[in-house]
Structures are given as structure tokens and as C-alpha cells.
Amino acid sequence: MFSYCADPKTLEGLQWLSCYLTTGKHLLFYESFFFVIALMLITAPIALSVGFAGALAARSHVAPVRWIGLGYTSIVRGVPDIAFFLFMPLALDQGLEWLRHKVKCPDWSDPIRQGSDFVVCTQAKLPLSSAPQWVHEYYGVALGMAAFAFVFGAFAAFVLRGAMDAVPRAQMETAEAYGMTRRQATWRILVPQMWIYALPGLSNLWMILIKATPLLFLLGIEDVVYWARELGGRKTSAYDYPHPDWRLWYFLALLVFYLLLTKVSEIGFARLSRRLSRGQATAAGMAEARA
Questions:
Q1: For 244-268, how does the pLDDT look when each residue is reduced to its tens digit (9 = 90+)?
Q2: How far from each other are the two terminal CA atoms of the chain, in whole angstroms?
Q3: What does residue 237 show for φ and ψ, rounded to 5 degrees?
Q4: Most exposed among 112, 124, 136, 228, judged by the fewest C-beta atoms under 10 Å?
Q5: Alpha-helix residue ranges (DSSP H) falling in the chain
Q6: Strand-pair partners of 118
């Protein structure tokens, strides 16, 4: 980046460090921090939507729909998260390729499952071999986000269902007495008031999501953990910037990053809780009213 970085072997002290910290790989390392934040900001609303649909399904009067909602939350909550993070991207990838294979190669006669291999025609591959490298990378990221949304959606569904049950039943009965249908009472009375009861559980899920983002490393995605290990490892004289094992310092930087992210999240949720408590018949709402 700097003009004096042309020959790293002639550098010493702060000049060496400034050139070392501005290499191309380090710039990718810095970008990975924003990638983690973007991942959470995109995944959280998707997981919340999945959880909301799961909560409504679990409360449905239609038995098959209720069974699906209850089964989804029970199965995902009962299986270790890492199993779904490793299983979901693979299953989703092969499922999409299988569907494309059936559409694009209907005359294919060979079995798709050949021992431990999953073989589809070239036109059905996702992404196509001719696609640019960034398409392959973002496809892997999208599969990882789907796994996060599926897992955390189940926990969000459990939290939201409990929040819906916490809204006083008398309010729903009053709405029905005034002639509202069940759907109208749900969207006008239940949903607006449930968020204050769901916020503590959702804030915990957000914190867990923050701590779970390093699992992207297991999917082969170049996230902050990947670059911390890659850059912090010992580099010999074969590299432009040789140094001993510095992984400790890189992972300490990750520690500070995640602690700051957690602290900012706590402040945000505290302000959101105060806002949602206004006018609510909760301990926080009554305390604010008296104040």
C-alpha cells in the first residue's frame, strides 16, 4: 500500500509493521469483520421470520400444521447445532442439484448415488463450473446463512410461542367479544404486545448467534477465524513478511471484537426494551409509568 513497501526485506520497525498490516491478505482479514456483521444482520431477520412462522404453526388449530411446527422446534432444539451446520448446507446443495438434474437431464440413466459420490449432469451443478469464483464463494455463504436461519429459527419459534402465551388471554377474549375474528385479534392484539415478552429470549438468541458465527469456519468459508489462523501462523523466510507464531495476538483481536459487538448489542437491546415497555402492563412498563 505504501511506496516504501516495495522491498520488505529492507524494512524495520514501524515501517515493517505498517507494510505487514496492509498486505492484501490483511485487507481481506479486515473485510471479514464486516462480513460477520453483515451475516448477522441478514440472518437474524430471516431466522426471526422462520421462527414467527414456526410459532404460529405450533399454535394452529389445524392438527397437521401444529404437528409440523412442534416437530420442527423439538427436533432442532434437541440436536446439537454443529450437526445441523454441517448437515444443512450439504443436504440443501444436493437437494437443489437433484431438482435441477431431474429438469435439465431427464434422459440421464446412470444412478445419482454412486457409492459415496453424488453425481449429477454438468448442467445441474450449482454453481456451474463456468461461473466466476465470487459466485462459488457467495453460494457457500448463502448455504451457511440458510443453516443459521434454520437452526436459530427453531429457537426463535420457541421464544415467540412463549411470548404469545404470555399476553393476557383476557385481551384476546375482549377482542373476540367486540366481533374480531381470530386472525384479526392475533394481528391487532396479540402480535403487537408479544414483543416485550419475547425480547429477553430474542436478545439471548442474538448473543448466541454472535458466538456461533465462527462455525462458518467449519464450512470452509473464509471468515475472521480462518484469516486469524492463516495470518497468525508461523511464517518462514519463504514469505515476504516472516514472523513467529502470532496466533495468540490475532485471536486476542477476535476476543476484543466479539466483546465490543456484545456490549453494543446489550446497549441496543436495553434501549429497545425501554421503548417497548411503554404503556405495557409489565414490571418495566409500570415502573416507567410511575417515574
A1: 888 899 999 999 999 999 999 999 9
A2: 56
A3: -65, -10
A4: 136
A5: 13-20, 24-58, 63-78, 81-104, 133-166, 169-177, 182-185, 191-212, 224-232, 247-277, 283-290
A6: 113
What type of residue is 121?
Answer: C
pLDDT, block means (10 residues), the chain with 291 residues = 70 79 85 87 90 89 90 86 81 86 81 78 80 81 86 90 86 82 83 87 89 77 84 82 86 92 91 77 50 53
Q: Are the beta carbons of 82 and 214 closer than 8 angstroms?
A: no
List pLDDT tens digits, range 3-51: 677 776 776 778 878 888 888 888 888 888 888 888 888 889 999 999 9
The domain ranges of the chain are 23-224
Report in angstroms the alpha-carbon separations of 169 from 59, 73, 177, 213: 14, 24, 12, 38
Global pTM reads 0.79
The H or E element containing residue 117 is: strand 117-118
Q: Does domain 23-224 have CATH number 1.10.3720.10?
A: yes
